[in-house]
Design brief:
Elements lengths: L3 H11 L3 H4 L25 H27 L4 H10 L14 E7 L3 H13 L3 E5 L12 E2 L1 H9 L3 H5 L3 E3 L1 E7 L6 E7 L13 E3 L2 H14 L5 E2 L1 E7 L8 E7 L5 E11 L6 H6 L3 E19 L7 E6 L3 E7 L5 E7 L12 H12 L4 E19 L9 E3 L5 E2 L7 H20 L5 H26 L2 H5 L3 H8 L34 E4 L4 E4 H4 L6 E7 L2 H16 L4 H15 L8 H4 L11 E7 L13 H5 L4 E3 L12 H6 L6 E7 L5 E8 L2 H16 L7
Parallel strand pairs: 1-2, 1-11, 2-8, 5-13, 11-17, 21-22, 22-23
Antiparallel strand pairs: 3-7, 4-7, 5-6, 9-10, 10-11, 12-15, 12-16, 13-14, 14-15, 16-18, 19-20, 19-23, 21-24, 24-25
Helix pairs in contact: 4-17, 5-8, 5-11, 11-12, 16-21
């Protein structure tokens, strides 16, 4: 049984916490969430003292990790011990701490895309560093809307709660219009994401400015002992041919203009629409440009306009269009079209001119500007990078470095976060040596396809913002984030002998919400959210009861951990890797308890769903694999609480017959990888085992 999550949590309790030696700063560290109990969190250490102590702390951690690795070696059988020795030839002597300029992954840019990527990699235990040319996180302005799919992703990461308490939930959209014949009037009032059109748990936009989003990632990585290196700009990189040769990354310290050379196995450019990493890589933005200019204002308003707390699209034939969004702390965001025929001189008109335009469009309603927090302009364009990665799969770009589009539909930050979410788990497996080259190649294939679809949609909609805000079926899918689907590939595998249409879900799509009862504690849960995202695949097995299919499931139980099967060797390979390079724990992990979901394998969570009453399921009677995985045994017995009134078996598998077993393989980013149904006979268990081996052998490799 792998112990890397539990052992790492215990290590965190024993080591000196960074939060305990850092200067007091309640804006960047949640002190009440640090693990080491203290009577007071005040610190007499200065910032200079803190920086001097960090190398000592890192060295102590490395020494402790080496000693505990030596102890843990005695727990493995000879075959595993041999694999450990091959994995790291320096186990016989304490390792020296790596130079601070060396990393597995270097992330350039600490906006939402860069921080999402760094946060996931650090959680997975990858030695990742993030650098940024700014001296602080985003204080005001920039992106501000989170779509339903992004909220779902942050819930799966256990990071959504902090944002949900700060942001404003906007459920409706209202459209207004004025012309020469008629004054300003409301022409429609609708739900943005009607339940009949979109099956999701959070059918609203969450309005919270970009700095809040950045903050949840910054706090999470700081709780794990890592921080963003700021005031450091990317300049260039040098790459030698060969996958094992590290990149030489040249940076510049902004305050001193001194050059600094960092080394890393992978370089990821999350440095925005003017990305320097993209330029050096030789990629270029391709697409549509226009001379359409929009202004944006964040401010506190006093007005008698009645729809200030909804998403509003306003069009005036005489003065142009406005998009209005309520924001946190009683703020309002306004996007104002600066029509070419109405511009006075420069395209980028002054704040006062833009405010006057707003007042003209909202007439006859009055508006008083109590406070302006942020003001800016942007030029509409829809472009996608010509390529997302270099020939050797060492250098990648993500987020706004890959695509640009208008902010009117709230796509940019949401799309950027999911670029990083797609790439993070693939990099984790690549760094650990388990990924075949084709796995990293799927990043560009999948995310460029989605970017192209989004920019085409944005090009159609940006010329008519009122029409774009109308909740048509197509608008709903794109504006919610659920339109992002992937084509068939080694990751999204349809069965050649059967049509994917025989199942309700197609590989490459997301799972809809579904309810089940967790049998160990009778807790009704949202099954797509209950198992946290730990960089692992989730394998769901559906059956009416385990009595009729026990032999089938028992064969798979043995197959999953055997040294003689591909699936079993993958399990031993990842457990070996996580023992040597464990996930980084944080205080919040004490409440999530990651080890509950990976008791057998760090690469797979095995979940069993039975169509029985939860009180009729006994853990001692289920096949051996789920006796250890007791937190992932579920009863499909609460269809009445589902968004569509369906049981999870019906919703995800189209139901299973008596004596039948359905299997869903869900990727670490929540997309369906493959699905199949089998007769639940014992001999069919071997067929299902070979089917799983074939799927994972398409893009993974064993290291032991």
């Amino acid at each position: 049984m792998p112990e890397f999550w539990r052992q790492n949590s215990q290590k965190l309790h024993r080591k000196l916490s960074r939060a305990d030696i850092s200067p007091q700063n309640t804006e960047t560290v949640d002190y009440h969430r640090t693990l080491t109990p203290k009577s007071s969190y005040s610190s007499s250490y200065s910032a200079k003292d803190f920086n001097a102590l960090l190398p000592q702390e890192r060295a102590q951690q490395k020494q402790l990790q080496w000693r505990e690795t030596q102890e843990s070696l005695q727990l493995f059988d000879p075959l595993q011990r041999s694999a450990l020795q091959q994995f790291d030839l320096n186990l016989q002597s304490p390792p020296s701490p790596p130079p601070p300029t060396s990393s597995d992954v270097l992330v350039v840019g600490a906006g939402p895309a860069g921080l999402m990527l760094a946060c996931n990699l650090i959680r997975f235990g990858i030695n990742a560093e993030a650098i940024d040319n700014r001296h602080e996180k985003t204080p005001t302005g920039r992106a501000d809307s989170l779509q339903p799919k992004t909220i779902e992703t942050l819930k799966q990461m256990r990071l959504a709660d902090r944002l949900l308490t700060k942001g404003v939930k906007v459920h409706d959209v209202r459209c207004w219009q004025s012309c020469a014949e008629q004054p300003l009037r409301r022409i429609s009032k609708d739900r943005q994401f009607p339940p009949s059109s979109l099956d999701c748990l959070d059918p609203y936009l969450l309005l919270a400015h970009q700095g809040f989003v950045e903050d949840i990632f910054i706090k999470d990585i700081m709780e794990r002992g890592v921080e963003v290196q700021r005031d450091l700009s990317f300049v260039d990189y040098k790459s030698e041919i060969g996958q094992n040769n590290p990149l030489q990354v040249i940076c510049k310290v902004n305050s001193s203009q001194e050059k600094e050379v960092l080394t890393s196995r992978y370089l990821i450019g999350c440095d925005g629409s003017q990305s320097n990493v993209r330029k050096v890589m030789g990629s270029r933005p391709v697409g549509h440009s226009s001379d359409v200019i929009w202004a944006v204002i964040d401010g506190e308003l006093e007005t008698d306009f009645p729809d200030l707390y909804s998403k509003v699209a306003i069009h005036s034939d005489e003065y142009g269009s406005i998009l209005l969004f309520p924001r946190e702390q009683n703020l309002t965001r306004l996007y104002i079209e600066m029509r070419k025929d109405l511009r006075e001189g420069s395209a980028r008109e002054s704040q006062e001119t833009v405010m006057a335009r707003v007042e003209a469009i909202l007439d006859p309603y009055y508006i008083h500007w109590r406070h302006i927090e942020w003001f800016g302009h942007y030029q509409i364009g829809q472009k996608v990078a010509s390529r997302y990665q270099d020939e050797e799969n060492k250098v990648f770009i993500a987020g706004d470095a890959t695509q640009t589009m208008s902010p009117n539909a709230s796509q940019g930050m949401n799309h950027s976060l999911h670029d990083s979410f797609n790439l993070a788990w693939k990099l984790n497996l690549a760094v650990r040596g388990l990924a075949k080259p084709c796995l990293l190649a799927t990043y560009e294939i999948e995310r460029r396809q989605v970017a192209q679809e989004l920019t085409n949609f944005d090009l159609e909609q940006s010329s008519a913002p009122v029409a774009a805000s109308t909740p048509t079926a197509r608008n709903i899918r794109f504006n919610s984030g659920y339109a992002a689907e992937y084509s068939p590939s080694v990751l999204n595998k349809c069965q050649p002998q059967k049509s994917c249409s025989t199942l309700p879900l197609r590989p490459g799509t997301l799972l809809p919400p579904a309810r089940a009862t967790r049998c160990i504690d009778f807790n009704p849960v949202d099954l797509h959210l209950d198992i946290p995202m730990l960089g692992q695949f989730r394998l769901f097995f559906f059956t009416k009861n385990t009595t009729d299919t026990y032999g089938f499931l028992d064969i798979l139980s043995t197959h999953a951990i055997s040294h003689n099967t591909f699936l079993g060797r993958l399990t031993h390979s990842i457990n070996t890797s996580y023992t040597l390079q464990p996930p980084l724990a944080a205080a919040s992990d004490d409440f999530i308890r990651p080890e509950r979901y990976t008791p057998i394998s760090g690469l797979f969570t095995f979940a069993l769903v039975v169509q029985q009453k939860s009180e009729d399921v006994e853990n001692r009677e289920v096949p051996s694999l789920w006796r250890d995985s007791k937190f992932t045994v579920y009863a499909d017995d609460i269809p009445e609480s589902d968004t569509r009134g369906l049981g999870v078996t019906e919703k995800w598998m189209g139901g299973v017959k008596d004596g039948e077993v359905g299997i869903l393989v869900v990727r670490p980013d929540g997309y369906l990888g493959c699905a199949e149904k089998f007769r639940g006979k014992k001999e069919e268990g071997l067929k299902a085992a070979r089917w799983l081996d074939e799927y994972f052998d398409g893009f993974l490799q064993c290291t032991c």
